[in-house]
Amino acid sequence: MTPGYGDPIRWWARFSPERIAVVDTKADERVTYAELDERSDRWASMLEKEMKLRRGERLAVLMGNRGEFAELFFACVRLGAALVPLNWRLSPSELGVILADCSPALVIGEGSFRGLAEAAEKSAGLRIRWLDVDEGGGKNRKQAATSPATHCSVDGEDPAMVIYTSGSTGRPKGAVLPHRQLLYNAIATTTAWELGPGDIAPITTPFFHTGGWHVFATPLWLRGGCVVMMDQFDPKTFIGDIARENCTVALTVPTQLLMLTESPQWGDEIPSLRWLISGGAPCPLPLAERVRGGGYVLREGYGLTECGPNCFAMSSDEARERPGSVGRSVPFLEMRLADESLNDVADDEPGELLLRGPQVFSGYLNDPGRTGEVLTADGWLRTGDLARRDGAGAYYICGRRKEMFISGGENVFPGEVEAALTDCPGIAEVVVVGVADPLWGEVGRAFVVARNGTTITDDDVLSHARSRLGRYKIPKSVVMLADMPRLGSGKPDRRALSEMAC
């Protein structure tokens, strides 16, 4: 297996077989590289010999974060098949759309999700082949392969995964991630973030998102590091859990950071931890300051399913010196900022972030039209995200281009307004969307979740906004929520909020 992502598990199994590759907290199991290699071989043999999975076909998986997920991925690598992680948080009709689009040769899942799969089948008028990982499939972990699988040599452009986006802007899109993308992301990440064999990272984001797989898991497996799989994020125990596992780096999203600051373990020392990285959405400055005030080193990152997902890097020192910045491009990746006509914009001016390099995806499955909308003829990926670059070359993410609204002829970036409101006493979380207005065209509406045990009024929010923002940026109305609607990734569902605002 030479070109493409290849098979680092096999190499490490021979070079350092007793090194720990996976800690499966749900199964209370520590898996060495030799064991992961052997189990992946068993799956590959069973999938090929018994289930007749062939090169170029797709294997869908419907389960939580557990060791078998990694075994199945590397089994697919060895067979030349593509893994399709399925989102178990979707409704049956939503999941049915994805199954119809990707046409998997087989679905492997936990028994607890069998009902969801059957309802999705019915919704889409499909018939799927199902294998329960804990019953027929579970035997694979304990029995030697009757005969070895026919291992393929994957090419860099062969699909490694198909990961479906959250669908906040419409029908979910299946992003095809080739082996080339995974390899270059892993090399760029471990180089720019200075990760090596001694690094240990927890995985709390679901494996149906690129963050679960490619922020730390596949990069660390390339370098012989260790991945601690956690089935879910528990803010009450997370700090103690990563301290106990001697984690050196950890990914969080801003919502998780906010929850951690209110946990009983907040401020506890984690001797092994070099830094936390916040991703998934811009981290409000007051929250970042609160994290650093708790004694933790914090960096901010940016990425997306279609590229990377690790696109920027910066040192911990610069992260403190340039609050809000995600840093500079990682190796191999070009970037520029452009206006609507794709002309470059000047430093300190917001523009759409365009990316080009070997970390860019192949396109959307069965959807050349939408692929053409985001990939230019000369290979630039239009991210749809707005960013600015300072004079020193450091980048700052402003928010989604489609989230920006125009009020009285002035551009308003919701992320800027949200950052100004986040440190308002009593606010736990805030999202701002544009709503139609007969006088100004559009105005902001703030959706607010109060901190536990706190009472906050509309006037409190608006008064705070007036002290921090220009008049045209101040929301004209406030809606108090008990909880924020969310996508499967944990991000606020802006589409749902926009519909609520109508």
Secondary structure layout plus pairing:
Layout: H1 8-15, E1 20-24, E2 29-32, H2 33-49, E3 58-62, H3 67-79, E4 82-85, H4 92-102, E5 106-109, H5 114-124, E6 130-132, E7 159-164, E8 174-178, H6 179-192, E9 200-203, H7 210-214, H8 217-223, E10 226-229, H9 238-244, E11 249-252, H10 254-261, E12 275-278, H11 285-293, E13 298-300, E14 312-313, H12 316-321, E15 325-329, E16 334-338, E17 351-356, E18 363-364, H13 368-374, E19 381-389, E20 395-400, E21 405-407, E22 410-412, H14 414-422, E23 427-437, E24 441-450, H15 458-468, E25 477-481, H16 494-501
Parallel strand pairs: 1-10, 3-4, 3-5, 5-6, 9-10, 11-12, 12-13, 24-25
Antiparallel strand pairs: 1-2, 7-8, 8-18, 14-15, 15-20, 16-17, 17-19, 19-20, 21-22, 23-24
Could you explain how this protein is built, in words?
This protein has three domains: 8-18 and 30-178, 3-Layer(aba) Sandwich (Rossmann fold), CATH 3.40.50; 307-402, Luciferase, domain 3 (Roll); 404-501, GMP Synthetase, Chain A, domain 3 (2-Layer Sandwich), CATH 3.30.300.30. 30% of the residues lie in helices and 24% in strands. The protein is built from 16 helices and 25 strands. The strands form seven sheets. The chain has a six-stranded antiparallel sheet, covered by helices on one side. Helix 1 crosses helix 2 (33-49), helix 2 (33-49) packs across helix 3 and helix 4 packs across helix 5. The longest helix has 17 residues, at 33-49. It is globular. The chain starts with 7 loop residues before the first helix and ends with a helix.
